[in-house]
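User: Sequence for Queuine tRNA-ribosyltransferase below. Tokens please.
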Amino acid sequence: MPAQPFAFRLDATDGRARTGAISTPRGQIRTPAFMPVGTAATVKAMLPESVRATGADILLGNTYHLMLRPTAERIDRLGGLHRFMNWDRPILTDSGGFQVMSLGALRKLDADGVTFKSHIDGSKHRLTPERSMEIQRLLGSDIVMCFDECPALPADRDRIAASMRLSMDWAARSRDAFGDRPGHALFGIQQGGLEEDLRAESAERLRSIGFEGYAVGGLAVGEGQEAMFDVLDYAPEQLPADKPRYLMGVGKPDDIVGAVKRGIDMMDCVLPSRSGRTGQAFTRRGVINIRNARHVDDPRPLDEECGCPACRGYSRAYLHHVSRSKEIIGSMLMTWHNLQYYQDLMADMRAAIAEERFEVWERDFHALRAAGDVEPV
Ligand SMILES: [Zn+2]
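Assistant: Structure tokens for Queuine tRNA-ribosyltransferase:
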């Protein structure tokens, strides 16, 4: 593999929105970027080449799931996660922290790390910053996330402050444990809930440690869009302007547009793939439920402007039939469409930012959604 370093280049800004590219030895990531989620070494219902065909430059993998099954050591013996899942482009892995925290009563937190029981078989495991770095190295991840702790919101200020400071100690330990790995990146994660001064303190600690990129963490955990945007009005600018900024676990299309508008470069979410499997489609005219009776005789495509196989080759009536019948092709087509919609959205935003017409583009985006779905046949 060529020894190309990890680097971030900004090509244009429009307001606070930015477009550019991250270069890695495994290829370029155009920003703003949406990362489909490949939880268990697969983006469910999709072949890796199909995910690539939608325009995705990078996938996200989950440390928590992969460490339990099939285990990081097994993936390493089989040549790493890229080889294992047949995706040769960049992969970002989360640290496992967020999912372990979501286990509730199944986990026990101390200053050194977290002990938890597997949701699969109840076996006992432990994650520390050092172990999370080791697992993400065994997986062969291109972008590694610091191990952190994230309280669910609402939480009181003392709890959020203590949690943030623990995460910053863990960020320093993650940096030390990551070591010197040319071509690979370690991202720090800002915490601090909805408190601007705690976010500033967190950003300062992360900047003093120094990372190849920075995530805004601790959002999309139940605070609502308005509170999230309030934080995004200041949080990205507390982080270095010359490094990628990643908003973790977001979101719906209008969340993504609002985040890009506020200076975010990378996002991930299970929503397009998960929704596809339950019959929900994201379109330029908003969300539609293909299982709804209004589509049963409709010969038109899901989205007239979409070039994906589901829209080019199949009617709403067919998608309605296979989705209601729970045929596997229903999940495949609906997932493909949703991932295509998300990648088209990112491509549209990149072009609008590059041409300094983001504001007009955003107005049209909201207007078409407000107009709603096409009239029933
Ligand atoms: Zn489509």
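The two ends are 54 Å apart (CA to CA).
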